[in-house]
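Workshop exercise sheet. Pairs work together: one partner reads the sequence aloud, the other fills in the structure field after running the prediction. Swap roles for the next sheet.
Pair: D.N. / O.F.
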Amino acid sequence: MGEKRIILILVIILLLIMGKLFRGDIFEPTMQSDTIEDSAIEVEKTEQEIKQETKQETKQEETVKKEDSAEIAHKEEYMELYPDMYVKSSAKIPLAAIDTNVLNYRKYIFKYPMSDIQSDKKVAYLTFDDGPSENTRKVLEILKKYDIKATFFMIAGSVTPDRYDLIKEMIDQGHVVGIHTYSHNYKKIYASVKDYLDDFYLAYTRMYEVTGVQPIVFRFPGGSYNKYMKGIRKQVMAEMERRGFTYYDWQVSAEDSIGKPTRASITRNVLKDLKRYRKPIILLHDSSVNKATVQSLEIIIQTIKEEGYTFDTVDKR
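Structure field:
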């Protein structure tokens, strides 16, 4: 009898234990609760980090957008200047309708005529910077004597009313009149893209009014790679190209505006580099200080002719 009671008691205790097990009361929940709380804190922390990173990324994006907007606004500012200073296109086909490869080919053909591409003929391009002056008329007389066409890049600020007839004579004789600058003040014109356009516009309007011909070719004072232009070179070149103008540097320099040039030094400088090119663009000057250039011009022309070259203007190159 006693054994049965003991067994009954043990069964009841076992049932109670099993009941507690099923209810989960047998173990303390402290560790599980801590783990859950820790996990919640970690999740909350991760969400905060994500929000913080998102905010930082948003700020960075906004900063980049502001910088881009500022850059675009700056570009648009000078792009909107002088809406009348564009070269009129003579293309008969809408450019937007032309395949890119065809368009590039057309640009190439326009710049280098087919007759020149197919031919190995030697052509020299005489160019004169810094005129007009009293020496310009003497240069024109020599060119007329040899039936040579040349290109004159003018300082428009020097194109005063008393020289209008001289400019007209250039046009009538078939020479090309291009723009060099209005002021020839390097520090001023290369201070910014806007400053360059301001100077160019003065020169452009003066030359257009005087000649009645839209000037489409130009030369950067000091050339396109002068040190003053370093910080704005790409922007200026892109803007001038966008407006339809074409600039020309040179391969052969007479060095006639540096130091104390003489007839001998000018002639030597031109002829020593001439043979390196089949189509050299030759830099000369016709300002008031370039008397030696005028004095050496005939021998230069004669020697170039003897070397088998003909002459033409840069827009035909």
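Discussion prompt: Residues 25-45, 67-73, 89-118 have pLDDT under 50 and may be disordered. What would you look at next?
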